[in-house]
Amino acid sequence: MGTTFESVxxxxxxxxxxxxxxxxxxxxFDDINLDSLSQIEFGTALNKAFAVDISDDEMAELSVIGEVxxxxxxxxxxxx
Length: 80
Known about the structure:
- By secondary structure, the chain is mostly helical.
- The protein has one domain: ACP-like (Non-ribosomal Peptide Synthetase Peptidyl Carrier Protein, Chain A), CATH 1.10.1200.
- It has helices at residues 4-16, 36-50, 56-61, 65-79.
- The relative contact order is 0.19.
- Pathway: Lipid metabolism; fatty acid biosynthesis.
- Its main location: cytoplasm.
- One of its GO terms (cellular component) is cytosol.
- It is found in: Cytoplasm.
- Residues 1-76 form the Carrier domain.
């Protein structure tokens, strides 16, 4: 498995058919055309892929991919 960022981009590419080359840590959900419902769906996909629990409320507080990566890293560190 690559970095958390690479794994997050892979989830976006697979689930939402987003070109990985168009995603950076600074990309907002608007930049990659994810509406609020899709953001919740994205959170669910991340929870499944990483075996963590990011709540819908936590996902709603995140606005760019870098924040999602940081939140995932935080959740993964809690599991250790």
